[in-house]
Amino acid sequence: MEAPHPQGEAAAGWVTVEEWRGSSASMLSRTAVLTASASSLTSRRFGSRWGRIGSRMLGAFVPEGFPGSVTPDYVPFQTWDTLQGLSTYIRAMLSTQALLGAIGVGEQSATVIGATFQWFLRDLTGMLGGILFTFYQGSNLDSNAKMWRLVADFMNDLGMLMDLLSPLFPSSLIVIMCLGSLSRSFTGVASGATRAALTQHFALANNAADISAKEGSQETLATMTGMGLGMLLAHITRGHALSVWVSFLSLTVFHMYANYKAVQSLSLTTLNSERASILLQYFKECSEVLAPKQVSQQEHILPFWSSWRKLIRIKLPHEHVHLGAKASMLTHTDMLEIAKTRSHYENSNYLLLDKEGSVHIFIHKQATPADVLKSFIHGLVLTNLSQNGKSQHAEARRWMDDKYTTFISKVCIVQTSNLDVRV
């Protein structure tokens, strides 16, 4: 950039160049100024040498333009995620040591072919388990990233526990090894898929690839640290079964706590079935919509099968709505019911069937994502009216005609990013 001529240099001419570091105009910091004349060159650097070295080292672990290039929940999530990862790698040394001992490593009576065959069965079971898990739950991972993130780490804990138990039951060694591998295969699929969804959430500057790369650097550092600490702990506790179990269980409790805190810190801006239900319920009560962080505080992130609600047979509103029901499930009575209520769904690419306390949504083959969102909100409205004992289809249709457009407009305004529907 040019600046006014200093005294005595006007005739000769001069130029000044400034060096700035950053990824956007609002996140720049000046690092150096160079001034050249016909006879000399002067330079001035800003910031200490150690500060510049630290900044470059930090650049290997945080996205370019940090913190402005990521969402506010990136730091708390990564902090807790790194701590839980560190715990995992420490425990991995204990469980691997137990597993290797169980298959005969270090014993003269053990054969190479026997140990190889056992390890092969273990890996084969894990591969098949990953394929089956993807087949049954692959489409649900994106919309329920928080819950499946917890499930993934819980299954990893279970797999490590199986490895640690393997020496205690030599007659069932292969079965226990395969069960542990099966459990970890669920972890690999669920963790990878949910991580992709979270990376897209964190990226504010179309920098998902950069965030993913820096996540790899962070994980590598945590892995090296955890392996070192794990080897030290394995050496200290070797031959002391009680110390091994106390260390393993203590680290597991911390691991589960850190995972819960990591997931709890997330404020996702996408809509899934539960977040849509929370927004709708508040809008019906207050005619306003909640911010993503407020919605996150009300969200249930523990798996349904581990919650008390299953024991007392309580369902949340969105659990009464079944999106994308199959037409082949319809009975003659259902068809007659649809015939009576179809006038409420004219010019809509969906139909609703209120049956046995649940609302089944049938989507037309030409439905757009906007139609899918509208059908789900319509189903939630119908569910709420049915539970209150009021008129069902007619009143739900009336609410959709009067309030739906306003509701969606306010949701789009409040959300910090473009509305993304994952019901």
UniProtKB/TrEMBL annotation:
Residues 289-396 form the Root UVB sensitive protein C-terminal domain. Residues 51-284 form the Protein root UVB sensitive/RUS domain. Keywords: Membrane, Transmembrane, Transmembrane helix. Transmembrane segments: none annotated. One of its GO terms (cellular component) is membrane. Its main location: membrane. InterPro entries: RUS_fam, UVB_sens_C, UVB_sens_RUS_dom. It comes from the Eukaryota. It is found in: Membrane. It holds the Pfam family UVB_sens_C. PANTHER family: RUS FAMILY MEMBER 1, RUS1 FAMILY PROTEIN C16ORF58. Belongs to the RUS1 family. This is Protein root UVB sensitive 3.
